[in-house]
């Protein structure tokens, strides 16, 4: 059995940047264990498996896997897979699409070379003290943005949002693996446990995402699900309208550019993130 697959770079302004993604077609015959083994073999941040395509409805269903586990929602796989479907697979090249993931249906729109997703309504979970983060990092009290909380937020996958005061602090942050893992296991409310640190520098937004997989500290190049959580956080605490570009991956030589377009009206969060996708390769995978 062979599967067609594509490799793309997501949130990438040019090739060999952004976050890598493998997209496997005709995957409805695979079981969970087989998908997980393939994702572990290719070893990208995530791989997606298309289990159903309905060209007449401009819709498809996918499953998303890291090298370690299945995800309920993840932004860069949704955007990258949608780009492949709309530009390489569905003959009509639709500009609007619906992509179903385990948390539900995600509306997709392509405008020019940007693919946008509409995120689910956020949930704001626990607020943490600076001392929690200080206990497993090299940060000092002065490295945090005093006016904003440290809080876990989810739009499908949860992240602890950590506002920092400077790009120097963001660039130089280090963690103790064991202490960080223990803290995440003890405090995070969902099975997805990760930190998303950010700061503003000269009006520009910069961020870094860290999680632990296979007992290793992993930094992600461009995290769409974390960006939806960060956008929700900024709409709640910073400004009820936001249009900006989130710079991620700069410190690991995989620069990602994640476009924000959001608005808070009453209790409704209108959260959209977008990005460019670069085609890298296609081939056949022997199962």
UniProtKB/TrEMBL annotation:
GO CC aspect terms: cytoplasm
InterPro entries to which the protein is assigned, alphabetical: Phenazine_PhzF-like
Pfam families: PhzC-PhzF (PF02567)
Record-linked SUPFAM superfamilies: Diaminopimelate epimerase-like (SSF54506)
Enzyme active site: 46
Gene Ontology molecular function: isomerase activity
Family of this protein: Belongs to the PhzF family.
NCBIfam families linked to this entry: PhzF_family
Protein name from the UniProt record: PhzF family phenazine biosynthesis protein
């Amino acid at each position: 059995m062979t599967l067609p697959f594509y490799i793309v770079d997501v949130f990438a302004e040019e090739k060999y940047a952004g976050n890598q993604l493998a997209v496997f077609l005709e995957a409805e015959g695979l079981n969970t264990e087989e998908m997980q083994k393939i994702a572990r073999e290719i070893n990208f941040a995530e791989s997606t498996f298309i289990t159903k395509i309905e060209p007449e409805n401009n819709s498809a269903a996918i499953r998303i896997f890291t090298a370690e586990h299945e995800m309920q929602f993840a932004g860069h796989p949704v955007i990258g897979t949608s780009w492949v479907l709309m530009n390489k697979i569905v003959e009509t090249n639709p500009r609007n699409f619906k992509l179903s993931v385990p948390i539900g249906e995600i509306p997709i729109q392509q405008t020019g070379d940007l693919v946008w997703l509409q995120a689910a309504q956020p949930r704001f979970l626990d607020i943490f003290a600076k001392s929690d983060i200080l206990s497993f990092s090299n940060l000092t009290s002065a490295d945090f943005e005093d006016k904003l909380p440290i809080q876990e937020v989810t739009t499908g996958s949860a992240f602890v949002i950590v506002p920092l005061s400077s790009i120097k602090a963001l660039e130089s942050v280090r963690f103790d693996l064991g202490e960080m893992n223990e803290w995440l296991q003890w405090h995070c409310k969902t099975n997805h446990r990760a930190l998303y640190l950010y700061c503003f520098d000269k009006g520009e937004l910069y961020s870094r995402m860290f999680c632990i997989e296979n007992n290793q500290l992993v930094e992600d190049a461009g995290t769409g699900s974390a960006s939806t959580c960060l956008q929700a956080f900024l709409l709640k605490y910073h400004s009820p309208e936001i249009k900006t570009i989130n710079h991620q991956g700069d410190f690991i030589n995989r620069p990602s550019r994640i476009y924000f377009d959001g608005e808070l009206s009453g209790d409704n969060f209108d959260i959209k993130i977008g990005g460019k996708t670069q085609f890298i390769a296609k081939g056949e995978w022997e199962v």
